[in-house]
């Protein structure tokens, strides 16, 4: 038996050795084979395919430039400046609110920003108690005898110190400018709540009232400025909101936000700053005046020079609003703008929650303009839906936003409505002098974003019925249309690549017409009024043939 076993083992070893030798021979033979030679033509073709695949995948936004700039500042030993950190918080929040940054990307950046906030502004109770000032100590400095007599007994009165400029990280509600308006107005004009409950309908408003009643908020208190509401009601909002929102489909009503202390105890969130600066940037003085007022110098300029001048003015006003000191920028001339930094709401140091922000520039004007702009967006969306003005094609939906002769779309609630009722001038103007508020890319994108949210929640634009959206807003001054393409994200908070940039370019190349591709966003194009209908048809035919 032992001999047989050894023989079998010898046979097995021989077989394994033979197989190993054969594998080595095959490996040696393979190694001797010459490599495949790729011609220059093939290399060029592969490179062109990679480039074509890269550009055909669509455009998207990378990390916000403000966060990148602050990261660079930390490497250059300038990261301890609170103003730079605040600008980074505003930039990241702005990208998230306007759909350029998805939820996962925003969460990753907020973790990094919270680390820097904790580094610059540590929340140490012991350190804050050591810096406390008491009224008795101040009195003792003026009158030593009375101070020594009073120091023997009784509780001491602590004086709160101003923490102006301090940055905090705390949960932020998806409401609209809550600290600067009423709770009712903030919830009613929130994109999140309006799309979920459809508050423009009577049933939606009734559900909103039921939600407030279940949380224990009387309507008369909800219509008071939030800055003047008692602390018990604010605490009850935090406690009851998470309990009642699930029943009404309002889950994830809060997100991680950033707040800065302004003045003595007023607070300004990064979202409020984003809304205000965006409104100042997108709505020039012509939008605030309804487009009817123009100076003698403006009458002598053509529409292109006039538009360039208004863009520069709007940029300077928005840039000054970002300045925490409220000082005017060097590029803002005294003949163009007047500084309102010394009045309430003119800058961060003069911003008071619930105060009368009567300035024409600065954060106060931006906050008022942002709320008016949000109301215009929601009323215009309701008008488009009620009139069935959105046309569906095989590959996208589109809608026109016309501007009537008086610049108001027939009423203050229709498409092209003025943001602010004109009161600076009663001068009548021709239709070519009127200003259309939706003739700006970002405002038009906000309208498309809200329309997508509304129809995603009601289920009409989901599944096989989902389509991208193309909006065309009239520009009476230049006799053109501002056209934007908005891709459809399947879920709220997601960001998808936008392929309309290359589609717009191909459609423009295959037809005769006047086009302007002068925007940072490739999915934005300005088309001549006489060519806009053919442009939509050509876009449809081109996407149909692909």
TrEMBL record:
<dbReference type="GO" id="GO:0000727">
    <property type="term" value="P:double-strand break repair via break-induced replication"/>
</dbReference>
<dbReference type="GO" id="GO:1902977">
    <property type="term" value="P:mitotic DNA replication preinitiation complex assembly"/>
</dbReference>
<dbReference type="GO" id="GO:0003682">
    <property type="term" value="F:chromatin binding"/>
</dbReference>
<protein>
    <submittedName>
        <fullName>Uncharacterized protein</fullName>
    </submittedName>
</protein>
<keyword id="KW-0235">DNA replication</keyword>
<dbReference type="GO" id="GO:0031261">
    <property type="term" value="C:DNA replication preinitiation complex"/>
</dbReference>
<feature type="region of interest" description="Disordered">
    <location>
        <begin position="1"/>
        <end position="28"/>
    </location>
</feature>
<feature type="compositionally biased region" description="Low complexity">
    <location>
        <begin position="15"/>
        <end position="28"/>
    </location>
</feature>
<dbReference type="GO" id="GO:0006270">
    <property type="term" value="P:DNA replication initiation"/>
</dbReference>
<keyword id="KW-0131">Cell cycle</keyword>
<comment type="similarity">
    <text>Belongs to the CDC45 family.</text>
</comment>
<keyword id="KW-0539">Nucleus</keyword>
<feature type="region of interest" description="Disordered">
    <location>
        <begin position="410"/>
        <end position="432"/>
    </location>
</feature>
<dbReference type="Pfam" id="PF02724">
    <property type="entry name" value="CDC45"/>
</dbReference>
<dbReference type="GO" id="GO:0003697">
    <property type="term" value="F:single-stranded DNA binding"/>
</dbReference>
<dbReference type="GO" id="GO:0003688">
    <property type="term" value="F:DNA replication origin binding"/>
</dbReference>
<dbReference type="InterPro" id="IPR003874">
    <property type="entry name" value="CDC45"/>
</dbReference>
């Amino acid at each position: 038996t032992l001999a047989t076993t050894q023989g079998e083992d010898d046979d097995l070893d021989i077989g394994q050795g033979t197989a190993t030798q054969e594998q080595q021979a095959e490996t040696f033979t393979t190694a001797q084979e010459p490599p495949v030679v790729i011609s220059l033509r093939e290399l060029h073709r592969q490179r062109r395919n990679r480039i074509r695949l890269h550009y055909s995948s669509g455009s998207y936004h990378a990390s916000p430039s403000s966060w990148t700039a602050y990261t660079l500042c930390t490497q250059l030993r300038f990261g301890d400046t609170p103003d730079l950190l605040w600008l980074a918080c505003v930039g990241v929040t702005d990208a998230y609110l306007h759909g350029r940054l998805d939820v996962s990307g925003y969460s990753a950046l907020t973790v990094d920003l919270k680390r820097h906030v904790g580094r610059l502004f540590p929340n140490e109770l012991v350190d804050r108690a050591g810096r406390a000032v008491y009224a008795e100590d101040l009195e003792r400095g003026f009158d030593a005898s009375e101070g020594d007599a009073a120091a023997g007994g009784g509780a001491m009165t602590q004086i709160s110190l101003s923490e102006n400029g301090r940055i905090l990280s705390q949960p932020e509600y998806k409401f609209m400018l809550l600290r600067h308006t009423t709770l009712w107005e903030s919830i009613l004009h929130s994109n999140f709540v309006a799309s979920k409950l459809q508050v423009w309908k009577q049933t939606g408003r009734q559900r909103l009232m039921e939600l407030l009643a279940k949380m224990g908020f009387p309507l008369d208190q909800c219509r008071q400025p939030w800055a003047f509401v008692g602390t018990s009601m604010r605490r009850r909002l935090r406690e009851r909101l998470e309990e009642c929102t699930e029943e009404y489909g309002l889950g994830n009503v809060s997100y991680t936000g950033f707040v800065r202390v302004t003045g003595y105890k007023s607070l300004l969130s990064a979202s409020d700053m984003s809304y205000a600066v965006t409104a100042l940037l997108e709505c020039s003085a012509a939008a605030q005046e309804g487009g009817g007022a123009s100076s003698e110098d403006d009458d002598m300029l053509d529409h292109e020079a006039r538009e360039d001048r208004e863009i520069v003015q709007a940029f300077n006003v928005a840039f000054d609003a970002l300045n925490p000191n409220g000082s005017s920028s060097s590029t803002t001339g005294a003949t163009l703008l007047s500084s309102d930094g010394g009045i309430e709401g003119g800058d961060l140091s003069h911003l008071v929650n619930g105060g009368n922000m009567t300035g024409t520039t600065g954060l106060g004007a931006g906050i008022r303009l942002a709320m008016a702009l949000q109301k215009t967006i929601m009323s215009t969306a309701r008008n488009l839906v009620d009139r069935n003005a959105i046309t569906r094609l095989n590959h996208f939906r589109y809608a026109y936003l016309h501007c009537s002769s008086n610049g108001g779309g027939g009423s203050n609630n229709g498409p092209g409505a003025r943001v602010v009722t004109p009161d600076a001038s009663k001068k009548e103007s021709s239709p070519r002098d009127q200003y259309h508020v939706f003739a700006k890319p970002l405002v038009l994108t906000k309208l498309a974003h809200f329309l997508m949210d509304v129809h995603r929640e009601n289920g009409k634009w989901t599944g096989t019925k989902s389509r991208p959206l193309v909006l065309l807003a009239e520009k009476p001054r230049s006799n053109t249309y501002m056209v934007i393409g908005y891709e459809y994200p399947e879920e709220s908070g997601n960001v998808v690549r936008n392929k309309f940039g290359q589609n717009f370019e191909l459609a423009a190349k295959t037809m005769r017409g006047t086009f302007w591709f002068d925007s940072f966003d490739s999915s934005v194009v300005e088309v001549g009024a006489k060519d806009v209908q053919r442009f939509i048809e050509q876009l449809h035919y081109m996407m149909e043939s692909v």
